[in-house]
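Aggregate trends can hide what the representation actually does to any particular protein. In the encoding step, the backbone of a single protein was reduced to a row of integers, each denoting a local shape. The record that follows shows the chain in one-letter code together with its fold in token form.

***
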Amino acid sequence: MILKQFSTADFSAFEQRYRAHFINSLSGFKSANLIGSQDENGITNLSMVSSVFHLGASPALMGMIIRPDTVPRDTLSNIKQTGVYTINHVSSDIYQQAHQTSARYDAEVSEFDEVGLTPQYLEGISAPFVGESLLKMSLAVREITPIKLNSTILVIGEITQVLVPETIINSDGFIDIEAIDSVAVSGLDSYHSTGRLSRLAYAKAKSKA
């Protein structure tokens, strides 16, 4: 297969939406998550985010990138107001509804209602979970950092509660997300089921003879 070379000059010449699709595809498969939040008046919000990533296990930290707040970002606003939010895995059963949450709804409109997903609450946690999600967690905000380079926002949260089927937790703590059909995203709008190749042993450098 012949590879075509592109440079920063080519990126600049791309039409805006073409550039967005092209560059977003380069990072490969990303996790598909719904971020649940609620403002101080009790209005719920649900947003599709594909930039969630693991930051550390002790303490249990997750990061995510929020796009620039040059336009209203209800998720970011709610997180700043309440200090809590949820991350909910997207499965093949709900990926179309999850994608629809990326539409721009007014702040007083709940995406849960608009797309037909169910808000679920745990005692002591004001942010809503997605009832249909089979792996979900609540987080408390630990750090919100603007990234000067492109005006995006890094949100770091500490995991406080996890809801997951016990049957998909292996004896070594590994959670088999493929067993609940968690999906992946590539680019801006392409959704994928996964197929495991294998689990490999912990990698160690070979000892010298």
